[in-house]
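Example 3.2
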Amino acid sequence: MTARFRQFLAIDWSGARGPVQKGIALALADGAGGPPVLVERGRGWSRSDVLALLREDLPRDTLVGVDLGIALPFADCGAYFPGRDVLLPDAPELWALIDEICADDANLAAQSFVDHPDFAPYFRNGTLTGAQFGCDGAAHGRGRFRVTEHAQALMGCKPYSNFNLVGAAQVGKSSLTGMRMLHRLRDHLPVWPVDPLPGQGSVLVEIYTSLAAREAGRSAAKAKMRSHEELNAALASLGSMPVKGHGPIDDHSSDALLTAAWLRRVADEPGRWAPSALTPDLARTEGWTFGAF
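Structure, written as tokens:
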């Protein structure tokens, strides 16, 4: 069977403030083999840098995995923002709305959206939990989940709601900033499963680095690898050559390196592109995490 992709780019994303995000790391695995390698940038990566790379400098036939939520929950309430008069029909409309409201936020930030009086009640932000944080209008629990996040939980992962903006493990800010990027990638790079998987060319998917770590033999509690030795043991379990180095490595880099190798290993498995719970409506509104069953 001919391999669908030539390159595999994993991006550990960040919703942090500032012109450069220390939490962004990029790693590339060549479909021909060899160890994954970090894609270095002297001063570090900004979100705008990543956008420019994906729009202008992406190698041909690359599978791009970005560690963020590509949409907000929809199926649980029948809307992203239940109770509003205007209902957004799909993820691209959500991306466009966020980017429009945040047009004056530098560095693809999304603070204006979470501060907006029409949308702030849906988020847990700082010490405040919005009245619409839960689907039934009550402020409770861990917040709303997409169907794919329920699937992640069944696989032993510990997902968080994209409406949660609090705590070290929160993913809301990174997802909202990422949605601004996705809007600006329209007509440049398809986003599966919001867009159908094309027969050729590059495509972007949502990844959850803990899924890659899990399939490399690590538990959810030990998904983070902070030494080259831990990373190389996980890479070996995926059939990948080791990366060079000894001693400590930051977990953003190790997440990206391992996930690039994992994408290379599993991308041509048909079942990865056809999870049983993924319906056309879910694909259009919530998207899916590549690798979640």
